[in-house]
């Protein structure tokens, strides 16, 4: 209260103390505010510059909403009025800034805005400084209004920078002219893109070059303050250059200058240089120049004593990483991780994971890196990272065996981190069969290895290991008894945790009750994951907050890959149905059932069912008539990407049974804009319609950006057919109208069911079908390498049963099956004779209907 | 924008504190102790910029006194670093070879000087003569 009384006194000293007290101790919510406001109002109106100055100062410090309401109209007028004193103008400018910050809506944009810009030309540099701060903030909200300030700022800046030291005597600080003002002006310029007016731009470039030149000159004073001030201006100038990103030679010079600083004696300069280089690394012009300093940076990483400098070095390494130096950088980051501060470990782990994945030329290296990561900093490896490595291993066949072996070896270490056990358990469960041949990693040894870690793990890991055990039961029947014992033990069946108990009981039952086929179906290899957004990057962004490093990731990111929340079984199926599936009727309205599949043992060599979405980033498939090659791919397999272009991706999943089939067409919107009026139509030629019945469900006409819609098509084969239906897509993207046509791979062989038969039966039937029309023979050159396993897999994928030991020549392939149509059933026999020297095949097909023979022969010939 | 300006001695006693963004009184002491702890633990080879929570600390040591300035991301660290030195030079000129005792006994004057230089978190005046002008006039008035 006393302070408020002081405010109204006329003596300067008392008033000052009063204001000082208020500005320091009173916050915006005090009850005294109203009284204070009154006092301030009086002072402002008093026209006495000192009083006004004090009052404004107080407003600036306290700046509450009520004050803003009271004074927001007045202050701009004071600011630009011609007769106010300079010191008052200074205070008024910053006062306005404060009020604007607290309540931007209350500060009207009036005609005073242009006057404010003119303040930049004022003689009194204090006013200029204040005005610059004000304009910088205002310009960020309304850039249009303050555009004129750019040219003024540039001219002012050039006058300052090129001035001789005697001009600005008061403001020259250790021979550097007005450093703080220069810094402020440079920051103001950063709010705007590079000026379009060539004169202004030329001046600005000149200015920046002068600053850079000055940095090279020998210092005018030995004092550290001189160099500090000079460098302050220099760093701000470099930020501006990076922000504009338009002058390559300036960028390169800036980069070189920073490079010199990297080895400076003073730690401050090294720190700032590393920080600026991080932003510089993102610009395309200077990326190369930045990379030349990689040795220095790595050295800094190893030898710096200051942890924040080391942290900057890591950030810079992350920013400058690209394909050429990825391996080196990742290795360095891993070695740093071992000694890093605990608070930053998680961030480094995420970064290493992202880099390893982005620049992995050889995925074995990627697997190694991630396993190393887990070994060094297992606690900080978040879930996303190890989900990702499993996803990649499953999506890529070539690395599966290597992953299994490496994981097995890693698990043998005496002290394993739990994450390693999780990853190891999962991978061995899926791909343990790939290393089971080696006596050192026989199934029993694998099981014992995993089980030895079992008790040391937490509940979720144990749950995962139980799943692995049941997968082992499927893969390696010889360890079935051992595993069943484990599952049967009381510690599992009567475990306190519900999840573990449930899993143990169910798996035990499953292993005892189910036949091998059903077990194989249920525990089939996990299909590859579809690709979506990477959640590791999202996690890194969350951690770093507004840091610029992760923004660079966005601009450099060319392919976005996905992390699944957890493995989820997708319904994979083939055309072969060997046992009656317990699943619901295919044409029923229930959810799509996971139809039984070919036992995993036979899929050892083939990648037909597995390699589905992993090559979706490959070349664009051309439109309608040219989609033949894609079509041909689908003859022997049922799932995959049918068509892809810049805008959308069409994927297929189908399953067939006798003469019925169901196909799911997935339309993925690859862009971020919606598709409107999305209408897919299935077109069948007239004669085809008689033989093939297609029934579709309608699809939502709007497809959101990045979303995927699904359409189900029910297929019924009435009679044999040769043509394929065409899928025509029409939609509106942006303003353009898009039309896409692609052939749907519904071919006669989809309704082919394999039949096993002995060799006498085969030859008997073969003789029965000796009518010339019933036989079709084709001799053709092999298009693909003649590999026995692949050929066998293709024949099975085609739908026929592969009969062993029927043909006297062991190199020949013999198959038999039945084509199911609604009207008839047509038996088919085929024989494929390869000639390795000539790289040719002879294919003979005999069926009871000539058109069928013709069609099947055509289809099958394309496959080899 | 400058968030706060502190002068703390080696024993952790705050000699001057000025906040440009409102923080509760009890939180202030907590902040000050944490800040001084991180500054004291650094050696002379380490750089003067520390990242603390979501802003940066720039500190400079003068004998037994630490001057710490907390800024947000957009400020140029080097400029602030020099600003601290400028501030000390102004004090030096006014008090002729300033010491910690001078600051303790003339806290109001130091505040006035600081207010002349920094307003609402922005550096507004760096010219020594102009900053000290009002203060010198004040002194003259109180003498007479």
Low-confidence stretches of chain A: 546-626
Helix percent band of chain A: 40-55%
Oligomer: heterodimer
Provide the low-confidence segments of chain B as ranges: none
How many separate structural domains of chain B? 1
| Radius of gyration from the alpha-carbon trace of chain B, in angstroms | 15 Å
CATH architecture of the domain at 331-522 in chain A: Alpha Horseshoe
Shape of chain A: elongated
Describe, in plain words, how this protein is organized in 3D.
The complex is a heterodimer of chains A (864) and B (144). With 864 residues, chain A is α+β, with helices and mostly antiparallel strands. In chain A, the strands form 4 sheets. In chain A, strands 11, 12, 13, 14, 15 and 16 form a 6-stranded antiparallel β-sheet that branches. In chain A, helix 3 (33-45) runs parallel beside helix 5, helix 11 packs parallel to helix 13 (224-244) and helix 21 (363-377) runs parallel beside helix 23 (400-411). Residues 546-626 of chain A have low confidence and may be disordered. With 144 residues, chain B is α+β, with helices and mostly antiparallel strands. Classes of the chains: A alpha+beta (864), B alpha+beta (144).
Key words describing this protein structure:
heterodimer; A: 864 residues; alpha+beta; Leucine-rich Repeat Variant; Immunoglobulin-like; 6-stranded antiparallel beta sheet; 5-stranded antiparallel beta sheet; 37 helices; B: 144 residues
Provide a short characterization of the protein structure.
The complex is a heterodimer of chains A (864) and B (144). By secondary structure, chain A is an alpha+beta fold.
Question: How do the strands and helices of this protein lay out in sequence?
Answer:
The complex is a heterodimer of chains A (864) and B (144).
Chain A: H1 2-7, H2 12-25, H3 33-45, H4 49-62, H5 65-71, H6 74-80, H7 86-102, H8 112-118, H9 125-141, H10 149-162, E1 172-173, E2 176-177, H11 179-189, H12 198-216, H13 224-244, H14 248-261, H15 267-280, H16 287-291, H17 294-303, H18 307-319, H19 326-339, H20 342-358, H21 363-377, H22 383-395, H23 400-411, H24 418-435, H25 443-454, H26 459-475, H27 480-488, H28 490-493, H29 498-513, H30 516-522, H31 535-544, H32 548-556, H33 628-633, E3 639-644, E4 648-657, E5 660-669, E6 675-683, H34 686-691, E7 692-696, E8 708-717, E9 726-733, E10 736-743, E11 752-754, H35 759-768, E12 775-781, H36 788-798, E13 801-803, E14 813-820, E15 825-835, E16 840-847, H37 850-863
Antiparallel strand pairs in A: 1-2, 3-4, 4-5, 5-8, 6-9, 7-8, 9-10, 11-14, 12-16, 13-14, 14-15, 15-16
Chain B: E1 2-9, E2 14-19, H1 25-40, E3 49-52, E4 55-62, E5 65-71, H2 77-95, H3 100-105, H4 107-117, E6 118-119, E7 122-123, H5 128-143
Antiparallel strand pairs in B: 1-2, 1-5, 3-4, 4-5, 6-7
Pfam families (chain A): Adaptin_N, Alpha_adaptin_C, Alpha_adaptinC2
Subcellular location (chain A): Cell membrane; Membrane, Coated pit
Family (chain A): Belongs to the adaptor complexes large subunit family.
């Amino acid at each position: 209260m006393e302070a408020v009384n002081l405010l109204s006194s006329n003596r300067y000293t008392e008033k000052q103390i009063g204001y000082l007290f208020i500005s320091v101790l009173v916050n915006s919510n005090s009850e005294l505010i109203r009284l204070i406001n009154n006092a301030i109002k009086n002072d402002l109106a008093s026209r006495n510059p000192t009083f006004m100055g004090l009052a404004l100062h107080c407003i600036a410090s306290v700046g509450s909403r009520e004050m803003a309401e009271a004074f927001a109209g007045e202050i701009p007028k004071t600011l630009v009025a011609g007769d106010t004193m300079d010191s008052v103008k200074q205070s008024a400018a910053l006062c306005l800034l404060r009020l604007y910050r607290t309540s931007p809506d209350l500060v009207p944009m009036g005609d005073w805005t242009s006057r404010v810009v003119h303040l930049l030309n004022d003689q009194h540099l204090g006013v200029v400084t204040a005005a610059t701060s004000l304009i910088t903030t205002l310009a960020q909200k309304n850039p249009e209004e303050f555009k004129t300030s750019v040219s003024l700022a540039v001219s002012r800046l050039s006058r300052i920078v090129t001035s001789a030291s005697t001009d600005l005597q008061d403001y020259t600080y250790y021979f550097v002219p007005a450093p703080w003002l220069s810094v402020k002006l440079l920051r103001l310029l950063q709010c705007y893109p590079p000026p379009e007016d060539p004169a202004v731009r030329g001046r600005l470039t000149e200015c920046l070059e002068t600053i850079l030149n000055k940095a090279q000159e020998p210092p005018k004073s030995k004092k550290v303050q001189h160099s500090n001030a000079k460098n302050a201006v220099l760093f701000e100038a470099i930020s501006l250059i990076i922000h504009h990103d338009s002058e390559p030679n300036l960028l390169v010079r800036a980069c070189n200058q920073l490079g010199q600083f990297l080895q400076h004696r003073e730690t401050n300069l090294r720190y700032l240089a590393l920080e600026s280089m991080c932003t510089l690394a993102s610009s395309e012009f200077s990326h190369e120049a930045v990379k030349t300093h990689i040795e220095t940076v790595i050295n800094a990483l190893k030898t710096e004593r200051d942890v924040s400098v080391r942290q900057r070095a890591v950030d810079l390494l992350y920013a400058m990483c690209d394909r050429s130096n990825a391996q080196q950088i990742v290795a360095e980051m891993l070695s740093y991780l071992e000694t890093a501060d605990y608070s930053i470990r998680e961030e480094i782990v995420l970064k290493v994971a992202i880099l390893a994945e982005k620049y992995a030329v050889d995925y074995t290296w990627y697997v190694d890196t991630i396993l190393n990561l887990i070994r060094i900093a297992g606690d900080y490896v978040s879930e996303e990272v190890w989900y990702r490595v499993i996803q990649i291993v499953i999506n890529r066949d070539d690395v599966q065996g290597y992953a299994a072996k490496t994981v097995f070896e890693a698990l043998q270490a005496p002290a394993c981190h739990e994450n390693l056990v999780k990853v190891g358990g999962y991978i061995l469960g899926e791909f343990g069969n790939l290393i089971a041949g080696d006596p050192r990693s026989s199934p029993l040894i694998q099981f014992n290895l995993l089980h030895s870690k079992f008790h040391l793990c937490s509940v979720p890991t144990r749950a995962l290991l139980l799943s692995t055990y049941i997968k082992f039961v499927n893969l390696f029947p010889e360890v079935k008894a051992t595993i069943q014992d484990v599952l049967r033990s009381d510690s599992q069946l009567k475990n306190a945790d519900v999840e573990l108990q449930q899993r143990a009981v169910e798996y035990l039952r499953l292993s005892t009750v189910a036949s091998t086929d059903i077990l194989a179906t249920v525990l089939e290899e996990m299909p590859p994951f579809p690709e979506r957004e990477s959640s590791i990057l999202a996690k890194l962004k969350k951690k770093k907050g507004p840091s610029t490093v992760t923004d660079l990731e966005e601009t450099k990111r060319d392919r976005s890959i996905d992390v699944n929340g957890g493995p989820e079984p997708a319904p994979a199926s083939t055309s072969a149905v060997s046992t009656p599936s317990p699943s619901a009727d295919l044409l029923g309205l229930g959810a799509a059932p996971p139809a039984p599949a070919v036992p995993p043992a036979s899929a050892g060599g083939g990648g037909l069912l597995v390699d589905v979405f992993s090559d979706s980033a490959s070349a664009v498939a051309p439109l309608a008539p040219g989609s033949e090659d894609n079509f041909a791919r689908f003859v022997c397999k049922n799932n995959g990407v049918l068509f892809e272009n810049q805008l959308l991706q069409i994927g297929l999943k189908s399953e067939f049974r006798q003469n019925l089939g169901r196909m799911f067409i997935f339309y993925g919107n690859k862009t971020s804009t919606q598709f409107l009026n999305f209408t897919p139509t299935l077109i069948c030629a007239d004669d085809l319609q008689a033989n093939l019945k297609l029934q579709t469900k309608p699809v939502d006409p709007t497809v959101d950006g990045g979303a995927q819609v699904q359409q189900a098509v029910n297929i019924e084969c009435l009679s044999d057919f040769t043509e394929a239906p065409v899928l025509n897509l029409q939609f509106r993207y942006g303003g353009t109208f898009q039309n896409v046509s692609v052939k749907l791979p519904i071919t006669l062989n989809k309704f082919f069911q394999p039949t096993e038969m002995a060799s006498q039966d085969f030859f008997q039937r073969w003789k029965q079908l000796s009518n010339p029309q019933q036989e079709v023979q084709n001799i053709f050159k092999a298009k693909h390498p003649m590999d026995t396993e692949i050929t066998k897999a293709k024949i099975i994928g085609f739908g026929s049963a592969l009969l062993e030991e029927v043909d006297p020549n062991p190199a020949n392939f013999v198959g038999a099956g039945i084509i199911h149509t609604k009207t008839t059933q047509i038996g088919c026999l085929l024989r494929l004779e390869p000639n390795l020297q000539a790289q040719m095949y002879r294919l003979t097909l005999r069926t009871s209907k000539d058109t069928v023979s013709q069609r099947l022969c055509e289809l099958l010939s394309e496959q080899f | 924008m400058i968030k706060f300006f502190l002068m703390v001695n080696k024993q952790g006693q705050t000699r001057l504190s000025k906040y440009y963004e409102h923080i509760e009184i009890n939180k202030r002491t907590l902040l000050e102790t944490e800040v001084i702890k991180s500054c004291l633990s650094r050696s002379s080879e380490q750089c003067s910029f520390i990242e603390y929570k979501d802003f940066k600390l720039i500190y400079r040591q003068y004998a037994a006194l630490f001057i710490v300035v907390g800024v947000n991301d957009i400020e140029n660290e080097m400029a602030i670093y020099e600003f601290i030195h400028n501030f000390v030079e102004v004090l030096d000129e006014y008090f002729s070879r300033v010491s910690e005792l001078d600051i303790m006994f003339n806290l109001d004057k130091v505040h006035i000087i600081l207010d002349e230089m920094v307003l609402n978190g922005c550096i507004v005046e760096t010219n020594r003569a102009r900053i000290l002008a009002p203060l010198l006039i004040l002194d003259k008035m109180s003498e007479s």
